[in-house]
Specification:
Elements: E1 9-10, E2 16-19, E3 22-25, E4 30-31, E5 35-41, H1 48-65, E6 73-79, H2 84-98, E7 102-105, H3 109-121, E8 125-128, E9 144-146, H4 151-156, H5 159-165, E10 171-177, H6 180-196, E11 199-206, H7 214-222, E12 227-230, H8 235-246, E13 254-257, H9 263-269, H10 271-274, E14 278-281, H11 290-303, H12 309-328, H13 333-340, E15 344-347, E16 350-354, E17 361-362, E18 365-370, E19 383-389
Parallel strand pairs: 5-6, 5-7, 7-8, 8-9, 10-11, 10-12, 12-13, 13-14
Antiparallel strand pairs: 1-4, 2-3, 14-18, 15-16, 16-17, 18-19
Amino acid sequence: MKLSRRKFVKDAAAGAMLVGGAPAMLGRAFAAEKVKLCSLYPLSGAFAGVGKPGDVGAHLAMQALAKDYGLDIEYVSIDSEGNPGRGVAKVLAEIQQSGTKFFAGAILSSVALAVGAEVHKSGGVFFTAVGADEVTGANCNRSMFRWSVPTYGAIQETVVPLIAMFPDAKRWYTITPKYVFGDSLLRNAVDVFKEKGIEHVGNSYHSLSETEFSGYLTNAAAAKPDVLLLLNFGSQSTNTLRQAADFGMKNKMKIVMVWAAGLEQYQEIGTDVLDGVYVGCQYDVTIDSPGNKKIVELFKRDANRIPSYASVGGYICVDLIMRGMKAAESAEPAAVIKALEGMKYEGPTGNEQIQAFDHQCVKNYYLLKGKSAAQKKSSDDYVEIVSFGKSFLTQAQSLCKMA
């Protein structure tokens, strides 16, 4: 579906002077043909509640920024359905039929890894905001970039500070989705438990199709943990948290949702359930940075909404692809990739940078706490920032070995 177009022309001091009868250009003009950019989000299925805001953010970035960057962009949305096989098939069709080279999005790590591999084979560029360490770790490739902090950093910036805040909470139970993202979170959590002397009293795995979590929560309650650590995402973490509240577990233990989907999820969960729950998130609307203030103003003006993690993730992935084109003065993927490597910019979370060795954006991850009804300053004021920081593997520690 074609949604908008913007002109792909870089203004430059141009003109001609006749010097000895020959024209001499002043400055250098950059122009190119229209460029197609595809977003890939689950617009249907269980994760559509996160995918649709991501698509809104991606489209908004193109509409608001392409002209400023001097670009002519044709934007196309692909519904991944939250399924790696279907997502890859649709991306391959777009590559083969239209020659598309630029892709953004995914939401699910399993989809991103599959799509990233195919985009790499075609010589394109793929920017995502998913979590599994493998994206910029063992399965990294030259075409794939990531804005979001991976699961290693998410655990370091949620579990580690909470252990410090509650030193007597020694018994932790985990609930984990059985796919690459959940496995990655669990692996990193267990490493922290071992390092900090925490007793991991149990784990319940569930499938990506699961909607009923009472059995897992019954097992968790029986283990009598001090902390219930939710490693699932989107509607699944929402349902888990709601059912835990119904079981009265909030009164018996601390509950932590490591990877929240942001505002849309808070609205779905509701203040009463979210009150006192700790959540980790890539982004919050209250972040005090020049880049975030501009984004908040833009979303309010052009989309009539407050930005959330999902929508900002879609926005920044498209923004960075276009920044790469502008910096490269080219729409050739190889040139754009080179321009993105090492790029420093003012992002939603402050000063951010893309590491050249693994294509990971270095940015903050946030530990938040749900507010009570009395603490809320507005209807959408659900959480407060407790702490934040940057935790990433060094190049020597990384499993990313790009050719």
